[in-house]
């Protein structure tokens, strides 16, 4: 990251180039902002897709006092700040697709599945992200969305641009990443974890949980809340992973739009939450912030379920609403990996529309609650 500060016609402009990658860079930017605290300034984020919590909090306060205007280049950051209710202006991408006029009425023929598979194999070679065993229909829909967004109607042109320009691949990567989530999603599952699984795990002196495909963190914080209410959080280590590094940054920040609060409170109550849900947050005008004590035992990091390296000795793995994007053979590979990552008697929780039927999962797991898609590791 580089910070440039300019003064022009009595206006101060700070430009932040690149992602803020470590605490030193965050401190550096905070120092620059501190020196300008009583002046009015414009701040522009050029490379960042997500900015850290401290900076967000700082500039939100300054903006409320009418001291700072925020500009962003990346659409990801733009949506993130908008979602938190922070005013910012979107500046147009310079390096986006070559803007061929996209006209739906003269849309070219759709690519065949074979062409798309070939494209995916080439993406894997060029960038190391393997989508060849994702559900092909969903991948084709996302490619179409990416082409419309990039205003490009010809698949071969799109393909060449993605394979030759990392920025354009990056846009496609974000379109391929579906991050829908909520607090206490499928509340019955959380009730069952609370009433059946946690009492069992409480007999251990130390508990290890993996939340795989955690998206922006709402699922893992829901888990942290029920662990806290069971007085088990302090002896539990939670790994929270996702392939998408930006959702991991959002999860670490723990800032969420206030507009979904009512639904979250209702889910929490239905999941038999024992307290007042908002006690776990600091409430700002337009967003809520998860309390630091819930974060202490959670380790967030980027990790793909397709990678070779193994994480192990878990007592419980949650991987919900991720298998829906995988074909049966990839689901089986990941299930085998979960089998090897679980302790004897360990639990696996999948999403409501997922299971172990069509993917040979019964070789590794048996049913604990089919209704809630909870399974246990088989003894071989
Ligand atoms: C729909 S979200 C589910 C979030 C959360 N588990 C829930 O159920 O609310 C699916 C998540 O899976 C992640 N994902 C997709 N492919 C993955 C992979 N190969 N490895 C790890 N995470 C992956 C996506 O980035 C996305 O955040």
TrEMBL record:
Gene name per UniProt: cheR3
GO biological process assignments: methylation
SUPFAM superfamilies listed in its UniProt record: S-adenosyl-L-methionine-dependent methyltransferases (SSF53335)
Entry EC number(s): 2.1.1.80, 2.1.1.-
Statement: the UniProt record of this protein carries the keyword Transferase: yes
EC main group: transferase
Top-level lineage group: Bacteria
Alphabetical UniProt keywords: Methyltransferase, Transferase
Classification via PANTHER family: CHEMOTAXIS PROTEIN, CHEMOTAXIS PROTEIN METHYLTRANSFERASE
All residue ranges annotated as the CheR-type methyltransferase domain in the record: 104-378
Entry protein name: MCP methyltransferase, CheR-type
């Amino acid at each position: 990251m580089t910070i440039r500060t300019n003064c022009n016609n009595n206006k101060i402009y700070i430009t932040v180039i690149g992602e803020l990658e470590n605490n030193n860079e965050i401190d550096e930017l905070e120092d620059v902002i501190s020196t300008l605290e009583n002046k009015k300034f414009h701040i522009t984020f050029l490379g960042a897709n997500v900015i850290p919590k401290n900076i967000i909090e700082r500039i939100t306060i300054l903006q409320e006092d009418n001291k700072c205007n925020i500009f962003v280049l990346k659409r990801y950051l733009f949506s993130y700040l908008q979602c938190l209710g922070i005013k910012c202006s979107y500046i147009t991408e310079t390096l986006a697709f070559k803007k061929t006029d996209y006209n739906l009425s003269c849309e070219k023929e759709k690519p065949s599945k074979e062409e798309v598979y070939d494209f995916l194999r080439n993406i894997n070679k060029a960038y190391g992200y393997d989508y060849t065993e994702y559900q092909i229909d969903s991948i084709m829909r996302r490619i179409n969305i990416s082409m419309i967004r990039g205003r490009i109607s010809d698949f071969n042109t799109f393909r060449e641009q993605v394979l030759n320009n990392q920025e354009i691949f990056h846009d496609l990567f974000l379109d391929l990443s579906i991050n829908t989530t909520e607090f206490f999603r499928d509340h019955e599952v959380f009730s069952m974890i609370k009433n059946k699984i946690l009492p069992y795990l409480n007999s251990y002196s130390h508990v290890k949980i993996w939340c795989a495909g955690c998206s922006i963190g709402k699922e893992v914080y829901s888990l942290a809340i029920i662990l806290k209410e069971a007085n088990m959080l302090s002896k539990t280590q939670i790994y929270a992973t996702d392939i998408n590094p930006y959702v991991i940054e959002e999860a670490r920040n723990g800032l969420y739009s206030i507009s979904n609060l009512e639904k979250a409170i209702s889910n929490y109550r239905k999941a038999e939450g024992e307290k007042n849900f908002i006690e776990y947050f600091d409430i700002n005008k337009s967003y809520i912030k998860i309390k630091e004590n819930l974060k202490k035992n959670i380790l967030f990091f980027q990790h793909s379920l397709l990678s070779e390296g193994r994480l192990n000795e878990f007592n419980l793995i949650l991987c919900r609403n991720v298998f829906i994007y995988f074909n049966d053979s990839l689901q089986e590979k990941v299930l085998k990996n979960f089998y090897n990552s679980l302790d004897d008697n360990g639990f696996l929780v999948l999403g409501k529309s997922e299971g172990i039927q069509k993917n040979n999962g019964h070789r590794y797991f048996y049913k604990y609650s089919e209704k809630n898609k909870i399974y246990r590791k088989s003894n071989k």
